[in-house]
Specification:
There is one protein chain. Helices cover about 80% and strands about 0% of the residues. It has four helices and no strands. The longest helix has 26 residues. The chain has one domain. The chain is elongated and about 55 Å long. By secondary structure, the chain is mainly alpha-helical.
Length: about 70
Amino acid sequence: MKVDNEKDDDIAPTFLQMVGSTMLSFLGVSKDSRRQRDFKHGNYKVFIASGFILAFLFIMIVVGIVQLVLPN
């Protein structure tokens, strides 16, 4: 089973896997093998773009919740 896992680490991640890795990094949880795969084969532009988009969405969600809680 270890051999199959090593083969998966040598394959470049798909777009959705890179976005998923970015989401996991926001939570602070990720496997070391996934991190190594991302740094070895990943496209940094996708990580930067998805990071900005996720940060923007997080800020908008927090602002929306504050607007709902505070009285007008």
